[in-house]
Design goal:
Layout (H helix, E strand, L loop, with lengths): L5 E11 L5 E12 L4 E5 L6 H9 L7 E10 L2 E2 L5 H7 L4 E4 L13 H10 L6 H14 L5 H5 L8 H13 L5 E5 L7 H18 L2 E6 L2 H7 L2 E6 L2 E7 H6 L4 H8 L39 H5 L4 E4 L2 E4 L15
Parallel strand pairs: 3-8, 3-9, 6-7, 7-8
Antiparallel strand pairs: 1-2, 1-4, 4-5, 9-10, 10-12, 11-12
């Protein structure tokens, strides 16, 4: 059996809080991505999704966050042992990232062509003329009309959807093996959002690039992912194939998230809500971190962390995932 393109084992990322000490913002997170596969990472804001991706690509905030444990194996090599210089050589060439806010990801004082040319020549030997030609072809590939004209324009002259396509084109210039897409369409309207997600899926199939898709929207993940990892408060709540997660969710948090999405095939009077908020890092509950918001919480949940309950590769971190307690509708 071939090894995964990316395998993260027991990743722990700590944040330094000054006088408040340190906290584990990502705690014991494990997952893998095969070649040509899309993993959707979903959860509310503050659950550690972006921090996990930043650890993978080596872009944790300096002096504030660091990898405190675990392994990040990319093509069999442990990225946690790489020097900053080695990671710079890897970023953009083998691993690329599309950032959450496209309007702030480009330098406003440089033309699109200059920024794409710089990104390309950092990893590939190409003359200025060749770099612009490659950039124009990539803009055309991501569906931007008049690519030669776009290369002469500044970021403020393009719409949000056009800027996001430019960001996707830049991320794919060196044909990376792994593309990290952090909320790639959250700042765009629904129509453009669907176009961007369809574009990413088409490019994945065409170029064979694996995708780590981060989203707070279960609907977005359902459309794109082969596997899904649900995160809550820095930990994995549930992990498995998209089919397993969406047809047979076992964790109450996953069920709540799915119940909050309107579905055309179901007639419901009221969508599910999740009471409360994700707890601050400095005030994490003992035992199961979701217990303070869980309708099924029991004394056992406060006493110790839930071990993984596994069924055919489907892992759920809940004390009662294999029993009858979760058989009721989580919306009740």
């Amino acid at each position: 059996m071939p090894e995964p393109l990316l395998e993260v084992r027991n990743l722990k990322v700590n944040l330094r809080l000054g006088g408040a000490g340190e906290v584990a913002a990502v705690d014991n997170v494990s997952f893998s991505i095969d070649r040509g596969e899309t993993l959707g990472v979903v959860g509310e804001s503050g659950c550690g999704k972006t921090l996990t991706a930043s650890a993978v690509i080596g872009l944790l905030p300096p002096y504030t966050a660091y990898v405190a444990g675990g392994e990040i194996l990319f093509e069999g090599e442990n990225l946690t042992t790489k020097t900053p210089r080695q990671m710079r050589g890897l970023r953009g060439q083998k691993i690329s990232m599309i950032f959450q806010n496209p309007m702030s990801a480009l330098n406003p004082v440089y033309r699109i062509g200059a920024q794409m040319r710089e990104a390309l020549r950092a990893h590939r030997k190409a003359s200025a003329k060749e770099a612009l030609q490659i950039s124009a072809n990539m803009l055309r590939k991501v569906g931007l009309s008049l690519p030669e004209t776009r290369l002469r324009e500044y970021p403020h002259q393009l719409s949000g959807g056009q800027i996001q396509r430019v960001m996707i084109a830049m991320a794919l210039l060196s044909k990376p093996a792994l593309l990290i897409a952090d909320e790639p369409a959250s700042s765009l309207d629904v129509t453009i959002q669907a176009q961007i997600l369809e574009l990413l899926e088409a490019l994945r199939k065409d170029m064979g690039t694996s995708v780590l898709l981060i989203s707070h929207d279960m609907g977005v993940v359902a459309e794109s992912a082969d596997k899904v990892m649900v995160m809550y408060a820095g930990k994995v709540a549930e992990y498995g194939t998209a089919d397993e997660i969406f047809t047979r969710p076992l964790h109450p948090y996953t069920r709540k998230l799915l119940g909050s999405i309107p579905r055309p095939d179901k007639d419901v009077e009221r969508l599910t809500t999740i009471r409360g908020m994700v707890p601050p890092l400095t005030q994490m509950p003992s035992g199961c971190r979701f217990r303070t918001r869980c309708p099924y919480a029991a004394p056992l949940c406060a006493e110790r962390e839930p071990p993984p309950y596994r069924e055919n590769g489907h892992a759920t971190f809940c004390h009662f995932a294999g029993g009858v307690r979760l058989s009721a509708d989580a919306g009740n």
